[in-house]
Amino acid sequence: IVNDMAGLNIDAAVVGGDSGAIVQAKKEIVSLSNGCICCESKLRGDLIREIDRIRKLGEHDYILIESTGVAEPKQVAESFCDDPETARMAEDPSKMLWTQARLDTCVTVLDANEFPRLIKSVGRFKDIFSNDMEGTDSEEGKKGIADLLIEQVEFANVILVNKVDLVTNSERDKVLEIISSLNPEAKVIATEYGVVDLKHILNSKSFSMEEAESSPGWLSSLKNGKVKTARYGISSFVYRARRPFHPARLSAWVRRILHFSQDWNEAETKDDTQQLSTMEKEFGQLLRSKGFCWIAGRDSMQASWAHSGRIIHVSPMLPWCADRPEEEWHTETPEEVEEMRKNFEGPHGDRRQALVFIGVQLKKDALISSLDECLLTEAELKHHSVTDRYRYQDTLPPWMDLCEAPGTDFRPILQHGEVHKFQLAEGLLLRISNLALHCPIEVENHPAFELISIKVWLDKGEGRDKFSRLLATLRPVRLEQFSLNVEISNLPSEGDCEGHDHGHGHEHNDEVHWLRMELTARTGKRTLSGEPVTKNNLNIVGVQVHVIGSIIIDPTMLQQEHSHEEEHSHEEEEEGETETAEENHNENEELMET
Which of 29, 306, 314, 463 could share a disulfide with 16, CB 3.0–4.6 Å? Predict the structure, then answer.
């Protein structure tokens, strides 16, 4: 079964063509094109049906699935496990893959000559392998190439390092060492022209989902705490700390050497020579880092830290155990509960930093020292509260605020360089009614401050397709409060609201929204000393815009429900009248017969 992103499945044509690339008495090549089986629901369903069909033929001993280069192998493997998403797609539970086939081996093939260059790349799959994406506009091609490579290497249980004839022995051994550091449990085989003993990849009975999920090098380092040092300067270590990261300092640290995934998605980042040079000069080549961290101002949630190549994702995971009762710790035995308790220390419980770094020529001491500088100082920690969300300037990418409770207030606070990201649950309406500017007294007293304007923006969408709308322009002293009537709704479907006019300022969509403030100098204005006014003329820390709004059930939704109820009631009345007429008719016939 050959899966190809493009409309023309070249691999299937070569393998199944008249060239005799595969010669058997009975052969069958199944082509699944225009998408990826790891995430395209239709193709994943096609895969399940094809395997069921081939099994029923009773003519084949083994099925080899060649996925696309953009595939995430874990998602394909989940089709062979008791996976709810796969079960949902199946039309018949008896046709589930795990009832008719086993996943035998998961193989990743990589290019020894290109791998070292590509894991440093900030490019997207579609840019580097444009021919493989021909004829498709799939979102899959927008994935980062380094991220994909490392994910595929970490999950496979057999890795073929091909084209070793194109590199020196030293270069080959270095690539093999990198692969082993990323996935120490995998069988790694060096090959030329893809020649390999088939016993390693066919009917090897070597794949285990449980082992695959625990095979990445970062996970074993995090569990056993061991620091690995190997030849060719490839090593790993675990960074630990019991103080939270200051969000602005951590943000600045990351942006000097890496790219946040949100920044990378919103910009055409093609060249990051300066950042890469800074990273290698100060810390060595960071290939991978993974773990969880504690961020001040976001104290309620563990933050997942996932970095591959040049891209890093920092996202919310779960609430810390310190904020949950023991029965919600996802533990099954008393021993596991006791193990979790060992993570508790001091007044903040299990909140801590635990990050694994894997790289080449790592400067461990410099890395630890620079990360320590991103933590809250001891003085800051004394005044720190895990419930104070807006104490620190936070320029990290925002986490989603899901507004799902009608009857609650919507009260985000905007600060310069920060964004509030939110999404409405279905059937709700957000009504923003007021904006209020708040400034510390020392900023208000600055002579240049009243010459600054504060613009408040509402953005809609994600990536580079955002639509921006200016809500208000606030001016210190002259206009510090602004009343407005902006309504954002999320109705179940567009068809439900056809023909309905929500009025001024009302938007309907279920997309992601962003609120942000922007400080701008009013054109031509100068300070008392004659300098042009810029936001650099004064310290803007502490300048805030308080957004005031409320979340309610969308009245349109209530009207629709009321209309449906009336229609249903009317239908029941008509049915009742019909039944009564039929009964009267039957009674008349009986009387006539009598």
Answer: 29
Cβ–Cβ under 8 Å, residues 453 and 473: yes
Measured between alpha carbons, how far is 50 from 419 in angstroms, rounded to an integer? 46
Residue with tokens 């943000």, as numbered in its chain? 251
Strands (E), 73-143: 107-111
Tokens of 96: 């589930």
Question: By C-alpha distance, which of 25, 4, 27 is closest to 17?
Answer: 27
Predicted confidence (pLDDT) per residue in 471-497, tens digit: 999 887 666 888 999 999 887 754 443
d(CA 159, CA 534): 56
Tell which residue, 260, 274, 289, 315, has the closest CA to residue 371. 289
Rounded to whole angstroms, how far apart are CA atoms 114 and 286?
17
Q: Token pair 């580097």 is at which residue?
A: 128
| pLDDT tens for each residue of 129-179 | 665 545 455 555 677 888 888 888 988 889 999 999 989 999 999 899 888
CB 122 within 8 A of CB 279: no
- Taking each helix axis from N to C terminus, what angle separates 169-182 and 217-224, rounded to the nearest 10 degrees? 60
Q: Could you tell me the two tokens for 396? A: 């990290």
- The one-letter code for the residue type at 120 is K
Q: What is the distance between the terminal CA atoms of the chain, rounded to a whole angstrom?
A: 75
Q: How many other CB atoms are found less than 10 A from the CB of residue 454?
A: 25
Pick from 473, 458, 380: nearest CA to 420: 458
Q: Is 489 left (phi over 0), alpha (psi -120 to 50) or beta?
A: beta
- What are 73's two structure tokens? 């192998």
